[in-house]
């Protein structure tokens, strides 16, 4: 079992993000301060349009702030080149989306294996790691199924196995339970808890679902582009 630490894995410091649309400036993030600890489950909540996805995109290096600092493992990633960010995303970050983002023609096993290939992990490690990740999400009996042969909850569990296979430091999940019934949503959160504890991965997820907030180590609430509670 990985050692649980309180060291920040990720810090967002006074981050602003504005967009120009139709000649108007829209200030979506207005001075966000937050941190995500290694080995902790962090949730972001807030009304639709409050900027949760915009913030996750900045955290994962998919976008850059208009002002402020995005620190990942003490490195100022907002200053990095696109090329360097791409390598970081492949090797150090896992993503999960509301829709399950699996390759439709590949089996569950092959989908998970693909992320190891993309991250440049040695082929000799693939078998053990794919088996371990599919076991963590409880899908050992579905390894040869393709996405269309799996339920929505099962597809999301494959997506989780795929997102953690390369041992990212940080897993970002945007409304990962939005398409699932409440039973499966709780199951996914239980899997997230297992992952932070067994693998020491930091998870930051957004959710509207108030029944899930109790499972988090930290919940940040967003409103008007700011964090209003912790
Ligand atoms: N590229 C962009 N250009 C212009 N406006 C944008 C852009 N990206 C996001 N926005 C605006 O920023 C605001 C916040 O969007 P965001 O998707 O971050 O909210 P959210 O909290 O994730 O919402 P939801 O819960 O509905 O997913 C919205 O008003 C959106 O229209």
UniProtKB/TrEMBL annotation:
PROSITE patterns: ABC_TRANSPORTER_1, ABC_TRANSPORTER_2. The lineage of its organism: Bacteria, Bacillati, Bacillota, Bacilli, Bacillales. It comes from the Bacteria. Gene3D superfamilies: P-loop containing nucleotide triphosphate hydrolases. InterPro entries: AAA+_ATPase, ABC_transporter-like_ATP-bd, ABC_transporter-like_CS, ABC_transpr_LolD-like, MacB-like_ATP-bd, P-loop_NTPase. Residues 10-230 form the ABC transporter domain. Keywords: ATP-binding, Nucleotide-binding, Transport. This is ABC transporter ATP-binding protein. It comes from Paenibacillus spongiae. GO terms for molecular function: ATP binding.
């Amino acid at each position: 079992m990985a050692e649980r630490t309180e060291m920040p894995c990720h810090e967002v410091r006074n981050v602003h993000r504005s967009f120009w649309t139709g000649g108007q400036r829209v200030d979506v993030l207005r001075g966000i301060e937050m941190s995500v600890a290694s080995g902790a489950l962090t949730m972001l909540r807030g009304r639709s349009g409050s900027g949760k996805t915009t913030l996750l995109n900045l955290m994962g290096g998919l976008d850059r702030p208009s002002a402020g600092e995005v620190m990942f493992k003490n490195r100022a990633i907002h200053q990095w080149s696109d090329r360097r960010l791409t390598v970081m995303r492949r090797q150090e970050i896992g993503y999960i989306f509301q829709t399950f983002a699996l390759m439709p023609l590949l089996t569950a096993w092959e989908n998970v294996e693909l992320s190891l290939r993309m991250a440049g992990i040695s082929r000799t490690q693939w078998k053990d790691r794919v088996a371990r990740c599919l076991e963590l999400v409880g899908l050992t009996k579905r390894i040869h199924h393709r996405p269309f042969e799996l339920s929505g909850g099962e597809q999301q569990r494959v997506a989780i196995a795929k997102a953690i296979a390369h041992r990212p430091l940080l897993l970002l999940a945007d409304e990962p339970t939005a398409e699932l019934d409440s039973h499966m949503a709780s199951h996914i959160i239980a899997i997230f808890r297992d992952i932070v504890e067994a693998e020491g991965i930091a998870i930051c997820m957004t959710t509207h679902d108030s029944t899930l907030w109790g499972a988090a180590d930290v919940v940040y609430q967003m409103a008007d582009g700011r964090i209003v509670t912790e």
